[in-house]
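Training component of the fellowship. As part of building independent skills, the fellow (R.M.) carried out the full modelling exercise for a liganded target. The chosen ligand was 3-isopropylmalic acid. The inputs are recorded below so that the supervisory panel can assess the work.
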Amino acid sequence: MELNIALLPGDGIGPEVVGQAVKVVDAVAEKFGHKINWTSALTGAAAIDAVGDPYPDATHEVCLAADAVLFGAIGHPRYDNDPKAPVRPEQGLLKMRKKLGLFANVRPTFTFPSLIDNSPLKRERIEGTDLIILRELTGGIYFGERGRKDNGDTAFDTCTYTRAEVQRLAKLGFEMAMNRRKKLCCVDKANVLESSRLWRETVQDMEKDFPEVEVSYEFVDAVAMRLVQWPSSYDVIITENLFGDILTDEASVISGSMGLMPSASIGLHTSLFEPIHGSYPQAAGKDIANPLATVLSAAMLFEDAFGLKEEAALIRSVVDKSLAEGVVTEDLAGKNKAYKTSEVGDWLAAQIG
Amino acid sequence: MELNIALLPGDGIGPEVVGQAVKVVDAVAEKFGHKINWTSALTGAAAIDAVGDPYPDATHEVCLAADAVLFGAIGHPRYDNDPKAPVRPEQGLLKMRKKLGLFANVRPTFTFPSLIDNSPLKRERIEGTDLIILRELTGGIYFGERGRKDNGDTAFDTCTYTRAEVQRLAKLGFEMAMNRRKKLCCVDKANVLESSRLWRETVQDMEKDFPEVEVSYEFVDAVAMRLVQWPSSYDVIITENLFGDILTDEASVISGSMGLMPSASIGLHTSLFEPIHGSYPQAAGKDIANPLATVLSAAMLFEDAFGLKEEAALIRSVVDKSLAEGVVTEDLAGKNKAYKTSEVGDWLAAQIG
Ligand SMILES: CC(C)[C@H](C(=O)O)[C@@H](O)C(=O)O
Ligand SMILES: CC(C)[C@H](C(=O)O)[C@@H](O)C(=O)O
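Fellow's submitted model of the complex:
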């Protein structure tokens, strides 16, 4: 099979971790007889530096032409804590999501048995956790009208949702639940927000089309609690953009395996795969960042973008092996030898070959 | 001293837990020679049933006339999962906050040594945690314009903040930090929201007035992570209404002492004190709910509303004693004897007398 993949390394540790995923993908392609056409493009601070735009049109063209996008991370400390910066790397992320129509961010949270003791939570709380948060990614307060009034002394942001946007996301959630433990939790703040009431009534209307799925409705504040108390009680969670931002990050740390969590963003024009960790600028260029989340994102890419399950399974099995044999970067090495980012990538590729 | 206190028991377990706090307050008043004038009033589902309004004008008058309000909880399952219910108990809560000008919700999160092992977090993560979240309570998306368009198919909510609202809340935060460990964290989403950028720039402008306070700025998603990872790293957190709703609930469970956490809402016209737990309808009328959070809210009432520190300290010390001696309700009793709600209240009052 011929796979056209756009490669957006981004900022900070992005290029390093993406580099290892490329090695792994190439090894898999070699083994299974696929041909990969990689096309790289700039995003984030790197793109601001080069052309003054964190998501340049040229990059958008590359993504549109690709069957899937492999993405690193965006963000640079130069732009933090400056509420008045005219262009910020994150704007590139939002523009990319909107222009590619990446409406659904899929974030699994699961545990690796060998890493469970890294969790801030007690073992008995976290064991068996295997949930997916499906976050709406192109609507809500991220993309509503915003601005200032009264000479800048009043600021406002608008959260807007349409029934169709909710249906599109929820349908995916119901389908995922059908392929899993058939439990769906719709997270909102319907006791306060009108947009949440639209979410809740829309999902309620869809229940009849998926009679096997057990649906629950919970308020976002309650979920922020229960994710810490009993994460294993969730299967598939659907929620709007801002709540999803907060809850996916919260969920990512409870697993104890944050450096390993992949994600997919499903789009109208293409799909994008990225590790959930950020650009981690302190580690950039040091060859110490953990590449496993990006490698596992590449596994999702094979499975979700191309339906290539065997390829995905092979990648996951060599990642399991690297954990079992301790071929890991310093964040996971404990008192044992820490491997370099590039060494982990080489080792994984060699295992596949 | 003569203390005029409005008593709003509310729904579910509200009346039971408030009842125990009243016993304790009366015992303290007796001991210190204060005179308490209690005036009760209806709120929540109870008030809807009686007069069709979850925060009736008569109740508002009672609160306005009082020096402080002791509140139980609001909420009834009859109104949950019904996005179309015309009147909901929570509307009473929001109306009360707005009409009493309760602009700042103060939520401490601390640990009781004897309860640390109840936390879902590992002991070494939670030990030493002593933080306050100061949540803005009368602005933001809770009170902005909202509605439907396109025959109900589009819903919107507006988040609005003014510089003055941010200053009022932040000033309190700086002052609290000065009385504590001098660390203030402003939590926002300034990489996306205009209202957050107003928050951040306003707080930045105030830094010079409190040169001793070390101020940090973090995004809400990062804080949702770090609260689980290293809660003891925070001192005072200030944030807007919706972020505060989510983060205070998340913080409450990590301490392992959720059933014990009190809160204060500081207002323009009066102040209100309430346990952070909800109305817990499953337990209503069974005399099993834990009254300690409400009793500790009464301690905050003595200290914050009337400056009566000794009275507050005495209440806290008898609560400590009840924990040490195991005079606790079933949620905390473990394998030992569980006391009834009313028995715990009687015991505490007797200890004070
Ligand atoms: C960088 C920021 C704009 C972004 C978001 O809030 O969506 C990030 O937190 C994420 O979750 O991908
Ligand atoms: C009941 C609800 C409206 C309320 C809120 O969101 O403020 C509650 O969650 C709280 O935190 O007091």
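The panel noted the following from the submitted structure. Residues 128 and 232 of chain A are 6 Å apart (CA to CA). The mean pLDDT of chain A is 95.
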